[in-house]
Structures are given as C-alpha cells and as structure tokens.
Amino acid sequence: MIMLKQFFWRTAMPRPAADLDLLSADAKTLSSLLQQGDLTSTSLVDMYLDMIEKHDGYLHAMLSIVPCLKLQAVAQKLDKGRKEGKLRGRLHGILIIMKLIQAGLIIIGKANLSEWAYFRSSTMPSGWSGLGGQCQSAYVRGGLDPDDTKDGSSTGSAVAVSAGYAPLSIGTETDGSLVSPASRAALYTIKPSIGVVSQDGIIPVSHTMDSAGPMAKIPHDLVALLDIIRYDTQDVLIQAEEQNLSLEEYKTYLDHLRKVVREGLDQIFNNYHVDIIIGSSDSSIKSLASGSEYPVGSVLLGYLDYNGRPFVLAVLAARNQEATIIKFMSA
C-alpha cells in the first residue's frame, strides 16, 4: 500500500504518562483514561498512526487513511468539547476504522476488504483487493496461510483492530464476513438481525441478508458501538424490504428459505427452551443466521498451537436477541 508522506507528518504532541499497549487496549479503558485527563484524543491519534505506519506495510489492513492534520483537527475539537463537558456519547474521542462522526468517534481510515464482497472469484483468497493487496493476519506465524483465508470480506476491519490501529471497526456480512474474520483475529463481533442497522452506504450482495456490524476487543465496546449504529425502529427497512420483493419467483424462493430455516431454529429455541446455539465459527451456523435473518456473534476460546491462529465459537440466537449473545460473551 502506498502512503503519502503528509498522512503521517505530525507535530510534537504530549504522550500519556503511562505507556499504552494498543494491541490490547479497548475502548472502555481508553474512555476512562480520556475522562480522567491521563490521555487526549490528539495524542491517541498519533499513537494509532504510529502503529499503522509501523505495521501496515505488510499487513495491508487499510485501504486509505485520513490525512494526519485533519485527524488532529477533529481530535483537538473533541478534546476541547470534553474539557467543556460537551460529550457526544460514551465513545467520545475514540478512534474507529470507518464511520460515525456524529457520535464523537474519530474516523482514522477505510479498511481493506475482499473485493466485490468475496464474489469476484471462487479461488480468490479473503482479504484481497486490487487497491489494498492481500491482507495478512496479525496472529499467524509466517504470514499468510493460503489455505486458511476463508469467509471474510471484512478482513481488513478485523486485522486493523487486532493489530492495534484502532479499538473499534465496522464490517459487513452476508454469510460469515463478520464472524469469520473476527474469529481469525480474536475479536468479538455480532451480525445484528436484518434491519437493526441501516444499509445506507452499503453495497450489499443481498438486501435481505446483508448487515453492518461492530468489531471490538471486549463485549462492552461491542454493545457501545452497536447502540450507536442500530436503528431505533425497523419500520423503514421492513417497508423497503417488502417493496423490493416484487419479483414473484424471487419472493417464492426467499420465503421458502426463511420458512425452512426459521422453522428449524424456532423449534430448537422454543421446544427445547434453548437461548443460543453454539458451534465452531467455521461451521454452517453463519449460513443459518444469514438464511433466517437471526443475529450471530463470535466468542474467543483460545489459540492454535501450530500457527498461533485464534480459535473462536459462533453463537446464534433468535431474532432481535442480540442482548442474549452479548450476555454469553460477557459470562
């Protein structure tokens, strides 16, 4: 990836008293330090840009980065607002890969992704794009494992957080593109029920299956970000969905898919009093979530001995039961 010099030119900025490990620092911890005055958003911008400059020459997690002077101007404005008691939300002054200026978040840049939502070629590895090149895991020893890059158009969003570029990111999923990359990056994520998050600005594979979702290092941050991006009401999207289903053949197939998948899942949830269904993140649970419009998330278990890759569970719940998944993540 080519980075212009002015993206990384910075004036001298104060650093926090205690050194931060950005690989493990979560948004909750950073927010606390910001509120206590031990850290500023301006210095945080510098620290994250240092991480990107240091590592993204080989990780290729970013497609583009907001120029440093613009980032500093935004951060200084948010620092000023904090001193004046004018907080925009609980993530005020925190950096994110993509989106959400209104909530006081600082957009540091745009993440790399699998081109054409991973539909450009059946043999293309996840995380490759013509602009960004091949995204690499921050965990796997020896770099890219070509046999272990499946299911992940949101690869850059996951790698960027795991590599310490920002504590939060946004990705999208049709079938596995949030859960799989997050599982490879030891992150928490959740694909919400379809309609919970707006599809505005998303180029979807399917309007009836695609959703944006957050990626974070702890469930608390996941909830905080999901609260920001979710709709207060689903009425607008439900109405739009019904209007779009005008082709009779397509409607027949879609209704059949929903009926079959939901009947099977609802029987498990209702008849056996099950709250969640758990399996490997490499399993078909993600496809069940896609076919039913039900939410699915990821939970870290540990790391594989042979190459250091994270091993993660996929967690499926009934429609609009995102809170149940978050509760399991926090247990």
UniProtKB/TrEMBL annotation:
It comes from the Eukaryota. Residues 97-236 form the Amidase domain. Gene3D superfamilies: Amidase signature (AS) domain (3.90.1300.10). It holds the Pfam family Amidase. This is Amidase domain-containing protein. It comes from Stachybotrys chlorohalonatus (strain IBT 40285).
